Amino acid sequence: MFFKKLDELADLNSSRFHAIESHKMLFAWIVAVVAIVVLGYCFHGQNIVFSGIAEADETIISMPEAVEVVKIHVIPGQEVKAGDTLVELARPALAVRMNELQRELDAIEGRGNINSASIDQKVAEVQSDLNMRRNTINLEIEKLNTQYQQNQALSSKLKSISGSVKADSNSGILLSIRNLKKELRVAEANAASQIRLLRGSKGLEKTSNKAEIEALHREMEMIKRQIDEQTIIAKENWIVASVDVRDGEKVSSFNPIITLTHKEVTLVRGYINEKIVARLEVGDAVEVISNSGEHMMGAILGMSSRIVPFPIRLLKMVDMPLYGREVTIRVPQGNRLLLGERVSIAEKTKIPQIFKESVMQGDEK
């Protein structure tokens, strides 16, 4: 009985020991988690807050070649719609080249017409010479035929004439007729050959002229498109941010002519000290806070790779310039930010990586 009581007492002490050990382990785990959070907070530091200016997407109208401003159809601050004419430009060199091409085209067409008429005239001359030669030969053949018939009639009446004399006379006439007919065939063949050559050269010249004319037409179409592109048409709704030229002014290549912007704020351009810029990355979520206290989410689109001066509006003291990195942030559509409004940008709190790993390990257990 005594030993049984000792065993029960020992079991009771053992259960209490295990309970105490379990509580110690739980307490140690809680202390470790708290330590990790504190270390992570100390490692991460306070949230970054920096300033920026609300802006909108902009597009700058410029030309790759030097142009002359003919007429400006808009003024700064004007709202334009798709299809509205913004500015009319001109490149004198295009008009000069178009006139040159037109003169070349007229010259080729005129030269082709002259050559074609000249060839037609030569063909007509060959045909005329052939007709004259044909008429002459046919007339001689007709005379010889008449003479031959007269000889035949005379020989039948004059029986005293010997047959040998008659045969010799008639043979000479028939031979002359055959020679004249042969001469006519040769003349017709030569004339046909000359006409074929003349008409062939006319076809070759037309083909050559056609290729030149097509090349000129292609270049003229290209220049016409370039001339049409000198009239700048709005392709969507914009607000005219600035007009950088005047009517009649000559503008160098790629110099801004008109700057267009959207009516609604689409991005925020923030400026941050380079010492803490490493804590931000492209794609990070940030919170944009307006002067009126409106909060909205944003996302970092890009970060400049060089140090730039802060805008004067963001300086607390104008005579003490600040430098840092430029951060471009996309804000959602439908926001109530004003163009040019100064805003605050706050970094969203990040869970330290070591804490996330600890939580994951705890879940696995």
In short:
This protein has 365 residues and is α+β, with helices and mostly antiparallel strands. The chain has 4 helices and 15 strands. The chain is rod-shaped and about 165 Å long.
Question: Beta-strand percentage?
Answer: 15-25%
Q: Whole-number radius of gyration?
A: 52 Å
Low-confidence stretches: 39-45, 163-167, 350-365
- Give the overall pLDDT as a whole number: 79
Strand order of the largest sheet: 1-10-14-12-11-15
- Elements, N to C (H/E): HEEEEEHHEEEEEEEEEEH
Q: How many DSSP helices?
A: 4
Indicate the overall shape.
rod-shaped
Class by SSE composition: alpha+beta
InterPro entries: MFP
Transmembrane segments: 26-43
Membrane topology: Single-pass membrane protein
Keywords: Coiled coil, Membrane, Transmembrane, Transmembrane helix
Descriptive overview:
The chain crosses the membrane at residues 26-43. It is a single-pass membrane protein. Residues 177-233 form a coiled coil. This is HlyD family secretion protein. Among the domains are: 65-87 and 233-261, RNA polymerase II/Efflux pump adaptor protein, barrel-sandwich hybrid domain (OB fold (Dihydrolipoamide Acetyltransferase, E2P)), CATH 2.40.50; 93-159 and 167-229. 51% of the residues lie in helices and 21% in strands. The protein is built from 4 helices and 15 strands. The strands form 3 sheets. A 6-stranded antiparallel beta barrel has the order 1-10-14-12-11-15. A 4-stranded antiparallel sheet has the order 2-9-7-4, with no helix packed on it. It has a 4-stranded antiparallel sheet with strand order 6-5-3-8, with no helix packed on it. The two termini are 44 Å apart.
